Every structure is written in C-alpha cells, then in structure tokens.
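Hi V.,

Quick status before I head out on leave. The structure for the redesign project is tokenized and pasted below; the design run finished overnight.
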C-alpha cells in the first residue's frame, strides 16, 4: 500500500514513514461506474485519495439551471478535504465515471495523528492547501462568469486567529510592516510574482481576473475583500505567480509579511508551520465554499432566499463551539489591529 502512495506525487512532501502510516490505517474502497463516493450535503467520516480510475465532481446549480460539472478527478487527487478542514458538509458530489479505487482515511484517526505529530501536520496541511488553491484556480472561469448573490461570509481572519497562538501573532508583528495605499492602487497583479503575504486591516479590495469571452479579453470581478482577509496566500502556497489582480477601492491599510522571512520561520518552527498551513487550508476551504454559494451553487441544505427553520440544523450552519472560537478570534484580531496601527 505504501508503494502505491509513494507514487502519488502530491504526497511527495510526506516522508516514507508517514506514507506507510496512511497506507496502514487506510481502507481501499472499489467503485463501479456510476457509484457515488461523496454526495453534496451529506456528512463524511473519511478523507479519500484516488488511486486508480477517474471520478467526476458536480455541484447543484442555481435554481432553474442544469447540474454543473466541476471537471474530472484524476489519480493522486485528495477528496473530502474541504469538509475535513472546515468541519462542514460537502459542497459537491463525486461520482465514478469508470471502475476506480480510493484509499479511505478515517477523519478521526487522521485528526489524532495531526494533533500528536506536528511535523506530519505541517506537511499534510500544506498538501491540502495546495489542493484547495488548485481547485480555486480551476474554477476561476465558472465563478467569474456567474452572478454574485448578496450572501455574507465569515471574515477569514476569524478562522485564522482561532488557530494561531499569541506567540504566532507576536512573531508576525515583529517580522512585518504596516503599509498604506491610496485608492485605485494595484496591490497584486495577476500572473506576476508576489513577494509578500498581506493581512488586510482597513479598506476594501477588488479581486478580478482576466478571461476571454467570445474572443474578447474581459476583466471580471470575483469578489471584494474587507478587513480581516489574507492576501497573496495562493501564490505563497503554490510558489507561483498571482492568480488574480487585487485593487484598492479606497484607502487601504495592511500588514505586509515578506515571503522570505515567512519561509525561513516555517522551516525552523514545525509547530508554527502546522498552525500556519492549517489556517491557510481552512481559509481556502471557506473561500471556495463562499464563492460557490454566493453564486447560487451548492445549496443542498436550503435554498437562498427562503426563510430558515431555526429548529432544523442546516448544512451551512455554524455550531456553538465554532461561534465561541470566532468570538475569541475576534478579540485577538482587535488586539492585533491595535498593535499594527500603533507602530
């Protein structure tokens, strides 16, 4: 089993011992063409790695539209990671298009391993972050050409600061600078290198991408970002160029953390690396979910615009523990904001 995982290039960051552990605790599941591995809106208990065959991902569409394909899943890809890191229900259905094999890894056993082995956690969450960033890039055109609905989303900084420790925030402050930009300044330009990771403190940024429509190059808005968002994380995770252009829509204030300083600190501090990559994975999973649901996709648990029954637990509902964590994270961010502005 570990020989099979050794050939999975996306797990190359794991050492032989960790791949053997995954092989030992994992269970092979065989699928026939048409079998559903993951169903949108239904709970999961396992993470999956596709070993052989091909699967297809589909997502429920906005009302009145046909089911939307998100593309094929090829061997080596990880599935169920959005639900694992975000502790939420799946936003897509995964179906076998031919006879296939997957390795099923128990969420419970994986979670225990991540807690006790922080080197493994750092590598695992980095792999998951890279997987999620690819999913965002692969679905850019669909998201850019769909109408955005006025659905609020949770500030990403609350997700990050619920994971970071106070020592992490102190290091980020010590290694970064607080910078200001005027309205209409381009902070990050699509397809160009990004040397800095940013945490947005004040202001509003527009995220846009260039796409081709009917032979004409157009610029489409993907999202607007407000205080508490992290910027430049996809370029950092993938060690590549920017996936989108970020433009200041008003005066903007942000923490600027140089990429080289962050890279060295991650290499020297596995505990910090584990928390950092987990935070990025949680942010990317939430961002992917947000962008689909803000366009009417993935609404398996309830329909946008309908009133909610408060006695019913919905797929996209936050539990009390999560709300408590975000309250603590909000206090941390307020402290972080005051420290950053005072220097």
């Amino acid at each position: 089993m570990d020989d099979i995982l050794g050939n999975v290039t996306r797990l190359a960051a794991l050492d032989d011992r960790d791949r053997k552990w995954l092989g030992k605790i994992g269970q092979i599941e065989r699928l026939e063409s048409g079998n559903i591995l993951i169903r949108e809106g239904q709970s999961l208990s396992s993470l999956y790695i596709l070993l052989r065959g091909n699967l297809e991902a589909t997502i429920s569409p906005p009302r009145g539209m046909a089911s939307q394909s998100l593309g094929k899943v090829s061997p080596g890809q990880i599935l169920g990671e959005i639900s694992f890191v975000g502790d939420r229900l799946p936003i897509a259905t995964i179906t076998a298009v031919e006879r296939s094999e997957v390795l099923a890894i128990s969420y419970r056993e994986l979670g225990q391993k991540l807690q006790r082995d922080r080197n493994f956690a750092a590598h695992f969450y980095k792999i998951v972050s890279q997987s999620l960033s690819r999913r965002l890039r692969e679905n850019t055109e669909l998201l850019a050409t769909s109408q955005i609905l006025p659905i609020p989303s949770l500030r990403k900084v609350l997700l990050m600061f619920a994971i970071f420790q106070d020592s992490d925030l102190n290091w980020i402050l010590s290694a970064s600078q607080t910078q200001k930009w005027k309205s209409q300044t381009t902070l990050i330009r699509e397809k160009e290198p990004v040397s800095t990771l940013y945490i947005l403190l004040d202001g509003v940024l527009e995220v846009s991408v260039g796409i081709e429509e009917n032979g004409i190059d157009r610029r489409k808005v993907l999202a607007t970002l407000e205080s508490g968002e992290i910027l430049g994380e996809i370029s950092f995770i993938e060690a590549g160029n920017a996936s989108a252009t970020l433009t200041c829509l008003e005066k903007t204030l942000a923490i600027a953390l140089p990429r080289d300083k962050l890279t060295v600190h991650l290499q020297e501090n596995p505990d910090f690396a584990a928390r950092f990559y987990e935070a990025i994975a949680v942010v990317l999973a939430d961002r992917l979910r947000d962008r689909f649901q803000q366009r009417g996709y993935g609404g398996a648990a309830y329909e946008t615009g309908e009133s909610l029954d408060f006695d019913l637990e919905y797929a996209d509902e936050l539990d009390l523990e999560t709300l408590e964590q975000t309250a603590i994270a909000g206090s941390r961010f307020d402290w972080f904001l005051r420290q950053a502005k005072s220097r």
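Above is the designed sequence. Confidence is low (pLDDT under 50) at residues 301-318.

G. will cover questions while I'm gone.

Best,
W.
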